[in-house]
Design brief:
Largest sheet: 29 strands, antiparallel
Distance between the termini: 12 Å
Structural class: mainly beta
């Protein structure tokens, strides 16, 4: 068990009882002497700086060693509890349930937080809601026709402190009538909102001939206050040793009126094609073209995207690449041109030049252009030294949409004596409109104090709005003990 108590150097006068409870629990854990097991616990409490009147406590239980694939028993849970002043709530929960057999079918299940299976969120007609994490129960089978069943709530982003959580049920089964054909019927039934979209459909993947494959998805989607609407997508994929091509045609359904991020199916009509070829060893050409529009307005204005990338990695020093991209709507155009050199060996340094120009007929300033140079140094100091690991990045030009100048960022870890270490990150604005030379600094020191116990000290300085007083001091105690269940 690892115990981590973090607190600010300035105490919060509005939460004295919380600090007393945390100190009592941590003191008990620090003095405990327990028996080893494969469970690790982290308790973290942070008191906000002066004047904010807010405090947050967190308790994490994580599995030290994952359950072996041959172990079909109950796994230890992973859980996170958070208290931000409005009452404790579960931040995350994962519990692998025991596997069991039904005749010759093996069934695996888990309870807690998970991502929907790829058959749902990876489909061409998948809406943005399916990419969000979910919390509930999922069952999967291993057989000639794998079945996936999920129940729970989608944790969708929301403006408030707590995410929206509409309920849902989903099921999909996949079977292959032949080695060249697979069929996957699926159904998704959400709830909790009149605008929730129920969808029923079937995905089909067929190897047409040689290196060509056709992937289609046909569905029907509807809501409680809207009729059912058809959806379809067709994708043709061809792959050869030195070339590849992919085309897709997609017809979605109108997004629900409640919120766009709650759409479980695509709300865009799109036609796209992309191709890649290698005419010479080390030389790669890739092109993408796409035309899209909202499904709610099939005759509306199109959004077009054109992109061309040329890369050559036949030189011993590294790879050189150039990208030209244009995105256009009825009134706005955006052009991006970039040149990049990526070092192959040593520090793997990357130098990148980006030029961006935009025009909008609805604005008084019709054309705007900006340029910047980026230098990334992922290994500023050699790791072979054993005690130094530094990284750096430099940006000159348009460092943000509203500011220009020169900005640098350095981060790394420095090993000190007696198993102590110092980690940190700093950002310098050498020039810029905001007038701040030092824009951010974070330094964390960690050192052993007694057996199996480490002390953490942290200092953070920033000029952004989340640092109202400019700086925050924090301290922590990290102790690894063991639990016996």
């Amino acid at each position: 068990m690892a115990l981590n108590l973090g607190f600010s150097a300035v105490l919060c006068p509005h939460r004295p009882n919380l600090r007393i409870r945390v100190v009592a629990v941590c003191a008990f854990a620090l003095m405990a002497s327990l028996v080893a097991t494969a469970q690790e616990a982290v308790m973290l409490t942070t008191v906000a700086p002066l004047g904010s009147g807010a405090a947050t406590s967190r308790i994490n239980f994580n599995t030290v060693e994952p359950k072996p694939a041959t172990d079909r028993g109950l796994a230890l849970p992973s859980i996170s509890l958070i208290d931000d002043g409005s009452g404790p709530r579960v931040g995350s929960l994962v519990l692998q349930m025991p596997d069991f057999d039904l005749d010759d079918v093996s069934v695996a299940s888990s309870l807690g937080d998970y991502r929907l299976p790829a058959v749902f969120r990876g489909a061409a007609l998948a809406g943005p809601a399916l990419a969000s994490p979910a919390r509930g129960l999922t069952l999967t089978t291993t057989s000639s026709a794998p079945l996936s069943v999920s129940f729970g709530q989608m944790l969708l982003p929301a403006a408030g402190p707590r995410p929206a959580s509409p309920a849902f049920a989903a099921a999909a089964v996949s079977f292959a009538p032949s080695s060249r054909l697979s069929v996957t019927p699926q159904v998704l039934i959400p709830g909790g909102s009149p605008g929730a979209q129920t969808s029923v459909g079937t995905g089909i993947q067929a190897n047409v001939v040689g290196n060509l494959a056709m992937v289609t998805d046909v569905r029907m989607a509807g809501t409680a206050d809207a009729p059912w609407a058809p959806l379809a997508s067709a994708r043709l994929v061809g792959q050869w040793p030195r070339a590849g091509i992919e085309t897709i045609v997609l017809r979605g359904a109108a997004a629900p009126r409640t919120a766009g991020n709650m759409a479980s199916v695509s709300s865009v009509d799109r036609e796209a094609a992309q191709a890649q070829m290698q005419p010479l060893p080390g030389l790669t050409l890739a092109a993408v073209t796409s035309v899209s529009r909202p499904s709610s307005d099939p005759v509306g204005d199109d959004t077009t995207l054109r992109s061309l990338r040329i890369a050559y990695d036949g030189h011993g020093s590294g790879q050189v690449a150039a990208v030209q991209q244009r995105q256009a709507t009825a009134s706005r155009e955006l052009d991006i041109t970039s040149f990049e050199w990526r070092q192959r060996w040593l520090g793997r340094m990357t130098v990148r030049y980006v030029h961006q120009s935009a025009s909008d007929s609805a604005l008084a300033e019709a054309n705007k252009g900006s340029s910047r140079v980026e230098v990334d140094l992922p290994v500023l100091a050699p790791r072979s030294a054993g005690c130094v690991d530094l990284r750096a990045a430099l940006t000159a030009g348009s460092i943000s949409p509203t500011d220009s100048g020169v900005s640098s960022r350095i981060s790394g870890r420095l090993a000190l004596i007696d198993d102590a270490a110092l980690t940190g990150e700093t950002e310098f604005g050498l020039t810029g409109r905001d007038g701040h030379v030092l824009r951010g600094l974070r330094v964390t020191g960690e050192m052993p104090v007694v057996a199996a116990t480490r002390l953490q000290l942290s200092y953070t300085y920033g000029t952004r709005p989340q640092f109202p007083l400019g700086q925050v001091f924090q301290a922590g105690i990290l102790r690894r003990v063991t639990l016996h269940w």
